[in-house]
Amino acid sequence: MSGSSRERLTVIGGDAAGMSAASQARKRRGSEDLEITVFERGGYTSYSACGIPYFVGGVVGDVDRLIARTPETFRSKFDIEVHLRHEVTEIDLDRRRLRVHDLDGGRERWENFDQLMVATGAVPARPRLPGADAAGIHGVQVLDDGIAIRRILEAERPRQAVIVGGGYIGLEMAEALVMRGLQVSLVDAAPEPMRTLDLDMGALVADALRNLGVTLYLGERLDAFETSDGRVSAVTTSERTVPADLVVLGLGVRPNTELARTAGVPVGATGGILTDRQMRTRADGVWAAGDCVETSHLVSGKPVAIALGTHANKQGRVAGINLGGGYATFPGVVGTAVSKICGVEVARTGLNEAEAAEAGFETLSVVVESTTRAGYYPGATRMKTKIVAEKRSGRLLGAQIVGEEGAAKRIDGLAIALWNRMTVEEMTGLDLSYAPPFSPVWDPVLIAVRKAAEKVEETMRECR
Amino acid sequence: MSGSSRERLTVIGGDAAGMSAASQARKRRGSEDLEITVFERGGYTSYSACGIPYFVGGVVGDVDRLIARTPETFRSKFDIEVHLRHEVTEIDLDRRRLRVHDLDGGRERWENFDQLMVATGAVPARPRLPGADAAGIHGVQVLDDGIAIRRILEAERPRQAVIVGGGYIGLEMAEALVMRGLQVSLVDAAPEPMRTLDLDMGALVADALRNLGVTLYLGERLDAFETSDGRVSAVTTSERTVPADLVVLGLGVRPNTELARTAGVPVGATGGILTDRQMRTRADGVWAAGDCVETSHLVSGKPVAIALGTHANKQGRVAGINLGGGYATFPGVVGTAVSKICGVEVARTGLNEAEAAEAGFETLSVVVESTTRAGYYPGATRMKTKIVAEKRSGRLLGAQIVGEEGAAKRIDGLAIALWNRMTVEEMTGLDLSYAPPFSPVWDPVLIAVRKAAEKVEETMRECR
């Protein structure tokens, strides 16, 4: 315990997970009982990292719109003390204290804690290649990155951008830069973008990008960055050299756990901090949540580290409830994700074919094309739904959707079915909503699971 | 068995349930094994009854667009013989035959069957009030009704319409007639329209109707229809007389089972034909599906008769698979429905407060206002989500959504959660999709179940 009679909760990281935990803990324990202090390395709290591409592209005008709550709000409404631009550089578990570096003042000090919440987020993967540290090469991880890129767009007027990596962030940034009038290329070592989809569905996304005017260099390994006067001038792949005055890295992220690991907080095979379902780490009085933790994939049963604001918020809330004396758990994820790229909606949940094989499942798949609304109703658009099911049992293992307006949110129903371990046969009976402005009489989800159930039946007949 | 060596399946009713059953049976049993004959009283097969308001309103131009498959298609592609304008007037179970009336030829004949599929649909409730049979008063049940109303709109140019009954069809027809330039009033005995919603949510729908220019006479009992020369001229309620040259009845429907009941096929308390989960009636070799049957409500556990194309299609498919030698079941419904009225999306699933009370549940409810997309993302609209949960267990019992573009389809996830008997606490962990164009970081569904879970916890604390 610290000197005073009240307990002190110290939070490292002031974004989704950290601030959710702090708010929930405060909700249950007043200031007389719990002091809450947050140290945030960057210049903002509680912002929408997922909104960065829309801020860069100009869809969102003002950076303030991405910020849910400011430090002033936390102070005045919740009595939570937030220190921005304060980096924690060491955790001393034995003496229950943190070394904190005031990035503006330049001074370091020690701060005590009784309970510690680790919400250090993720760090973007940076290729260890020649020229990788040149100016003009940017990751997109924290809000400051987005602000930096937008400043460059407005001040330096770059003309040729290369996106390295065709995941969600890479594609959303590609669209944002096209909207800004740049000539945009995308390099990815995989044969299709969006590796979380199967190749057949990824190919649909590639078509959408080409329609938008993005040049794709797929199946090409990144070799080096060419520079001139310390600034990036081109990206070299295994096949070619692509001129670039702006490079955006979308190579994924890994849990930011060095601080915790060094202090002796155990991390798992994924590199994420190990926690129980209440978000307690294996170190006494230390909690963790968000992009820095490892969680369970409820379909594969394997540990995963998935950096997503929605998990960070939920995990932070769970940690905060438990810190506050309540009881809550975060059981895991089913791998749901959604994105919109130039009018094309992309969603996935569960395991794709490759992931299912890796997890030891024998699978079958179907891809069904249907419409988002009744065919005769204005605004009906085409969408493709892919279902991956276990071959013998027919258990739903995953789903992917690529379509236009109104398609992708259907993934939620599939995610809930996965959560409940439904079979495709059982799903054919689901009572989903129908009216002509919303779906055909057989919703695309129902058509897809029906086809999958038929294939399961055929397979069983063949096996007899 | 009939004279030939092959079995004869005869279907009464050529819309969703009947034709789904016929098609599925054919898929599994070829013409050499099964002869399939359909008798349909009306002039069309396999049309979208739910599309009628959009046809009347002019959103759908041509009636053919509502027809999924014509008799010619069934004949040529499936070898299914469809006789339009043929009404079955008697089922003789002992002699395995039907009396069929050719409505155009005027002749009656007997037709044999081995297996019988009853898909006689529903009949609209018609009030037994003075003037109810006058010209200008129309139900909206079959496609011929829609064609008749549209013909009147184009030929007679009525100016004042009164809709009687504020259910889905009534409201959709109100919008359609407003689009046609009529002055539209709506009379309903209930205090708010859309009785399948709780009053607080129904009030939001009432506001939307008023904004559209519909005059609402709520809480007023229908007393009589005034007529002039055999044509309706006004509707009289307990409070006033409303001039009308067109009246549309939206008073709901009941299962059309007289034919089956008279033949000795048992019906349940709801008036719908009793079937098992394979859609077999209690009469040997007689099957039934669609609006004419009774089914189970999986939340209340009670029998219900809900006339909806989506159930009719599923039940017909299940009957057809079983008729064809396969195995399929229709376990029941959770009461999902959706509608769009003048830009307002309305959806519901499970039990509302009144229904839950009637089913013996002690409930708590929350209503949450949130946005369909991230608040900073263009096109975000406001929506209200209501959750009804069991007070002690926190089991989800029902949900209602009223909002704008992009709100209502979220009901599907709630319907799947209901299907799986989830608690609101468990639902707070659900891995739903998130990206700014699709939802706030906490999807409205998650916000709503989180608030409900908090209320369950509070209630438990109070009870201790």
In angstroms, what is the radius of gyration of chain A?
A: 24 Å
Helix-strand category of chain A: alpha/beta
The major pleated sheet of chain A works out as: 5 strands, parallel
In CATH, the architecture of the largest domain in chain A is 3-Layer(bba) Sandwich
Biggest interface, chains and residue tallies: A-B, 70 and 70 residues
Tell me, rounded to a whole number, the average pLDDT of chain A: 95
Report the total helices of chain A.
12
Number of domains of chain A: 3
Helix content, binned percent of chain A: 25-40%
User: How much of the polypeptide of chain A forms β-strand, as a percent range?
Assistant: 25-35%
CATH superfamily of the largest domain in chain A: FAD/NAD(P)-binding domain
Instruction: Enumerate the spans of chain A where pLDDT stays under 50 for 5 or more consecutive residues.
Output: none
- The CATH class assignment of the largest domain in chain A is Alpha Beta
Sheet with the most strands: spatial strand order of chain A: 3-2-1-7-18
Tally of extended strands of chain A?
A: 25
Specify the oligomeric state.
homodimer
- The gross shape of chain A turns out to be globular
